[in-house]
Specification:
By secondary structure, this protein is an alpha+beta fold. The protein is 48% helix and 12% strand. The protein has 27 helices and 15 strands. It has an eight-stranded mixed beta barrel. Strands 5-8-6-7 form a four-stranded antiparallel beta sheet. It has a two-stranded antiparallel ribbon with strand order 14-15. A hairpin with an 8-residue loop joins strand 9 and strand 10. Helix 5 runs antiparallel to helix 6, helix 6 crosses helix 9 and helix 6 crosses helix 12. The protein is flat, with a radius of gyration of 35 Å. The relative contact order is 0.09.
Length: 640
């Protein structure tokens, strides 16, 4: 490294003071003329060498400058990767220019503009400056050489930067999340200098872009979703629901018409084909009749109550109460179908929250991880009112996340979708098992990382982690020491010796360990699936089974609780000799803790994205449970 630095420093001393191309040529290329005592002009020097040669000489000087920046550590990791790629590209070409033909530069501009479909910004790659470079390509005058060199390097930099961003994402995830442990992908397969040059020379720039994108259905789905929502934005997006009380099924409200149009725009609501008028009741009529019957029933209860409180004299008189009036009005709606039809004629059917709209709301709620009740409460209203631009930004954020993760996905792996509260086991790149999970709370987040499942613990004990001990368990023990006995928790000293809980000052417990014995109500259930990591995170069974019925399941202290965990245990041990279902059940029945090493480790990926790929043409949105999207979006929008 020292030798390289000295060489680069010498080169800089020799070449950096040479201002302008003519001086550079005098110092590097016109030795013979100078030896003869001549004094060549710039024009004469230009005639001595072709423009391509002059550009190559200047590129070489520029590459030395870049190398010096690398040696001196004046670049970020992202810039370092790009600089090395640019230097390697031109070294391989002996510094010859490659963008000296208009067709090549036009193809590059077109390919860079296509990156908008990937959620990237073409102007990050200086597209406008490259357009201005086109008229200069035919100018071979010496005065144009510095400008053409700048354009040449700008084009190569843009091409390689775009390839890098398609392969690793534009945003550096390690800079946003200290828990991130995924390595940047080696760009050699796509950024090899010879391959890049060949793609330019043969007009295959767009094809190399396509080969560099993640070749995964999720990525294609996100791209299709981005195109769909941008089209919706061009059409004006969707209406917002004003703030108001909860709207329940069969309600009659002007907001219902807005709701119907909102879900019509995004496809959850499809206008039904209704029967001919007079043959059957319309969905709106069904609701209005139901409302009338409910009102009639309520009025009957009120009438009976009021009548019971009235004196015989009042009851026998011809006077009517307000309850009688309500009942009479309700009876108008419930007497017969023809009366009901005439009474509902003045109601706008679009303002009736009918069964078809209820089903559309439930579909929306299901895909948004909301409680599926068919009503428009605060959470559903807020999700409906997220703007189309915000959804576009959300898709762009997740396209970059996809570029971080979706290259070289192993055919067999466990994928934990943290924001989606689910886990999938893939074999031969196909899902063979899925289940729901519970993940860390917003203030005890489940980290994002990858590892390999290496062993399973049956009938696990649970050593209370320091954070949970301090924040959760100690306050309960101080309140009632019987908490330890009720939860089968033993107190141990640093050597593992059991201590008497009553002999400990729980306000200053010292260096003690709390360990819960295995059992039916143990915190880790009947099994733990373990994989090396520095966060003490693992998959495990849980006694908290009812929580799996919640739509959003961020309940744990960081670990992942798995529904039907024993099914997963059996799948993971399928290739481990002597550990079939019967053997697992026999070991569990003993109640003794036992570790079982897998014959073959299984990769596990804990990922976080807030868009769901329903199919290759359909997406849905998840809640950003850890509020991470905004940081990624800010970095994605930052001009390079």
């Amino acid at each position: 490294m020292l030798v390289i630095g000295l060489w680069v420093h010498w080169w800089r001393l020799c070449c950096a003071p040479l201002k302008g191309l003519s001086l550079l040529l005098i110092g590097c290329c016109a030795v013979n003329s100078l030896a003869e005592g001549s004094n060549p002009t710039t024009t004469e020097l230009g005639k001595m060498l072709s423009s391509s040669t002059l550009i190559a000489r200047e590129i070489e000087v520029q590459m030395v400058e870049l190398q010096l920046g690398v040696v001196e550590g004046r670049q970020s990791l992202d810039a370092h990767h790009l600089t090395e790629a640019v230097i390697g590209f031109y070294e391989q070409r002996q510094y010859r220019p490659i963008w000296d033909q208009a067709g090549r530069l036009e193809q590059l501009i077109s390919a860079l503009e296509s990156l908008e479909a990937d959620g990237l910004t073409p102007e990050d790659y200086q597209v406008e400056q490259l357009r201005h470079a086109l008229p200069l390509l035919g100018d071979n005058s010496p005065e144009a050489i510095p400008l053409r060199v700048a354009d040449e390097l700008r084009a190569t930099n843009a091409y390689l930067r775009a390839l890098y961003h398609l392969y690793n994402g534009k945003v550096d995830p390690a800079g946003l999340d200290p828990q991130w442990n995924f390595e940047l992908q080696d760009m050699a397969p796509v950024a090899d200098g010879a391959r890049v040059a060949d793609s330019i020379e043969t007009g295959q720039i767009a094809q190399l872009f396509e080969q560099t994108r993640p070749q995964h259905p999720i990525y294609r789905s996100f791209k299709a979703g981005l195109q769909q929502y941008r089209q919706l934005a061009l059409l004006g997006g969707w209406p917002s629901l004003p703030v108001g009380a909860t709207i329940k099924p069969c309600a009659v409200d002007p907001q219902v018409a807005v709701l119907r149009q909102r879900l019509r725009v995004t496809g959850e609501y499809i206008d039904p084909v209704l029967p001919d008028a007079g043959v059957n009741q319309s969905p709106a009529q069904v609701c209005l009749i139901a409302n009338a019957k409910a009102a009639s029933s309520a009025a009957s209860v009120v009438t009976s109550s009021v009548a019971g409180e009235m004196s015989p004299t009042v009851r026998s008189s011809g006077q009517s109460s307000s309850a009688d009036s309500v009942f009479t009005e309700a009876a108008v709606f419930s007497s017969d179908t023809s009366t009901q039809s005439s009474s509902t004629a003045s109601v706008n059917p679009d303002e009736v929250f009918d069964e078809y709209l209820v089903e559309a709301v439930k579909k929306f709620q299901r895909e948004q991880y909301l409680e599926v009740d068919g009503a428009i409460g605060p959470a559903t209203r807020a999700a409906l009112n997220v703007s189309v631009q915000s959804r576009i930004d959300q898709i762009r954020v997740n396209l970059d996340r996809a570029r971080w993760l979706l290259h070289n996905i192993p055919p067999e792996m466990l994928l934990v979708d943290i924001a989606g509260f689910k886990i999938t086991y893939f074999k031969a790149s196909q899902p063979i098992w899925r289940s729901r999970v519970q993940v860390g709370m917003a203030y005890r987040t489940t980290p994002i990382f990858k590892s390999e499942v290496n062993y399973i613990t049956l009938n696990p004990t649970w050593t209370v982690p320091p954070t949970i001990l301090r924040k959760d368990v100690l306050p309960k023990v101080r309140k009632d020491i019987n908490y330890l006995r009720e939860h089968n928790i033993r107190v141990l000293d640093s050597s593992g010796k059991q201590l008497d809980p009553a002999a400990i000052d729980w306000y200053k417990p010292g260096n003690v360990t709390l360990r819960q014995d295995a059992g039916e109500d143990a915190a880790l259930g009947k099994a733990v699936i373990r994989f090396p990591n520095s966060y003490a995170v693992y998959l495990h069974d849980t006694p908290h089974q009812k929580l799996f019925n919640k739509s959003q399941r961020a309940f744990s202290s960081g670990c992942i609780r798995v529904e039907r965990a024993l099914e997963l245990v059996e799948l993971l041990l399928a290739e481990t000799p002597s550990w079939d279902s019967a053997a697992i059940n026999k070991a569990l029945a003993t109640g003794k803790t036992r570790n079982v090493t897998l014959a073959k480790r299984v990769p596990i990926l804990l990922a976080y994205w807030t868009v769901d790929a329903i199919s290759e043409t359909q997406i849905a949105f998840k809640p950003d449970i850890y509020a991470r999207d905004a940081k990624v979006l800010a970095a994605l929008n930052k001009r390079s």
